[in-house]
């Protein structure tokens, strides 16, 4: 655990979150500032700063994170109409929290993948 990491502190129970799914190695909770009717963050309980580090350092954890994201999408009723799964990574993507997290967003048409340039 990284004591300075917001999401590690959520895993530790030090900061409250609305948890919707949990496994031995992953946790999923509602985004505090949702950008769609459904907006859930799925994280590994272990600290990895971004998806590149997770993929490199923990392939089994990477697979577990994807499986949890799929389970969340199904539980939230997103499989019929579709949803978006994304990892903001680094500065150009606007990553704000440096504990890898998959955004599961859906529940309404999401519009273009990126803002028009
Ligand atoms: P990113 O820009 O990909 O790093 O996304 C970070 C996300 O974390 C944003 O969508 C925030 O709204 C969300 N967030 C920040 N603090 C919390 C919190 N305490 N509980 C739930 N979500 C949070």
UniProtKB/TrEMBL annotation:
A motif (Histidine triad motif) lies at residues 99-103. PROSITE patterns: HIT_2. Pfam families: HIT (PF01230). SUPFAM superfamilies: HIT-like. It comes from the Bacteria. Residues 6-115 form the HIT domain. This is Histidine triad nucleotide-binding protein.
């Amino acid at each position: 655990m990284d004591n300075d990491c917001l999401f590690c502190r959520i895993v530790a129970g030090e900061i409250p979150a609305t948890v919707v799914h949990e496994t031995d190695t992953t946790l999923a909770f509602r985004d505090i500032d949702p950008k769609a009717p459904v907006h859930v963050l799925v994280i590994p309980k272990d600290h990895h700063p971004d998806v590149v580090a997770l993929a490199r350092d923990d392939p089994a954890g990477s697979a577990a994170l994807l499986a949890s994201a799929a389970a969340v999408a199904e539980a939230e009723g997103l499989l019929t109409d579709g949803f978006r799964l994304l990892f903001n990574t680094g500065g150009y993507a606007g990553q704000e929290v440096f504990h890898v997290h998959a955004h599961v967003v859906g529940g309404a048409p999401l519009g273009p993948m990126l803002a028009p340039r």
